[in-house]
Here is the input.
Amino acid sequence: KFAPVEGDYKVYIIDEAHMLTAEAFNALLKTLEEPPAHVIFIFATTESHKFPATILSRCQRFDFKRLSSDEIYRQLAFIAGEEKLKVEEGALRLIAGQAGGGMRDAIGILEQAAAHAQGKLSAADVRAVLGLVEIEALFSLGKAVAGRDLAAAFRLVQEVEEAGKDPALFARQAAEFFRDLLVLQLPGEQAPVGLEPEATGRAREFAGQIDAALLKKGVECFLEAGLAIRRGTEGALSLEMALVRLILEEEPGLEAFDERLAALEERLARLEKVIQPPPGARTVSREKESEGKGAPEARGSSTRAPEVRAPETRTAKTRTGKTHTQEAAAPLPVEAGAAEKSNDLTGPVADFPWWDRLLEEMRGKKRTVEALLKEGVPRSYRPGHLVVAFAPGFRFHWENVRRPDNLRLVEEVLSRLAGERITVECVLEKEEEARTPGKEPELVQKALSLFGGEVVKAEEEE
Here is the structure.
């Protein structure tokens, strides 16, 4: 309502404007919508997202970015020259790095340090005002980490505490120092570092003595320690534990990964040799091969007895007249009576002629179904029908094999192997049936075959 006494405008600056309440913003709406011609409102804030949309729509927004360290340094140098202050370049560089991009904070630090200094303002005066440790302490910390000297690192932390320094601030300094060392390892044009000019060359030489992975881990450990110190009341304990992780827990290199991979492959090969039957132990044939030149097989009945190929020693004569012997898998005929007996199977898996080949085929088609079938046992077989039993502890396997898509796939593969249509029925054994001698789960059977002994008591996990 009142015109300005001097000048053309009245300027109202509201700092930290995001702290205004909703009622205060609503009271300003009418004034902002139709402001007097001689009035300008300036809302200063660092959290513009807290402003109501009705206020933002009536204002013109200007975003100010943080100043770089070089810009702050140049402005501080200008101020020091105008005020006739004697200041070292390293002190101004340190103030610019610690200001966090804020010129007001940088000027405040300069004023405090100038009042503290006796004569020329040095970097040591700035560290004393800010509570920072000397650069030598950071180099000592880097040497202790590089040399895996935990005792020296602990002594350094104790000295920092006795000097009255803030452990959280020291952790942040250590993280920044390790970051600067990591940057100095990079080839070509590098990002700016927060070190003083006289310490940069020394740090570059020292950076070449530490592995980059160790520097990266150091940055992470010290940042985590700083956060933990601020949240808790343990003091330097979090910092000491960060040093323990950094110095004692070595990062595995590529050679260690190669060794572990080779050891795992060796163990896997030994396991496969134990689980899988020896090659050539038994081969099942679906049809009897003709001994003539492609003569068709005479089929006497619709039900064919499976044949088992067993190793056989043959004597052959070459064109030169020399003879030699070789072992081959020759078909051994199975008598009709034996074939009829094989149709009623109640023994282990190996008694069913096509079981091993079924698992092998399923491994190539659908590994999950093969893994489920491994826990089953062919309990009985009659022409065109196979019953696969699962122990009570393998209900999950039984339910998933019985899914229509999985069961259809198993029947298709088995019918193709046997040369006739075979349906598969999956049953879940009762607990007392599953624990009768000779009917233990496959895993128990393998354990008995490897280590011997007998089953005394079996309990299922709930």
The beta strands are 10-15, 39-44, 283-285, 307-317, 323-332, 376-382, 385-390, 423-428.
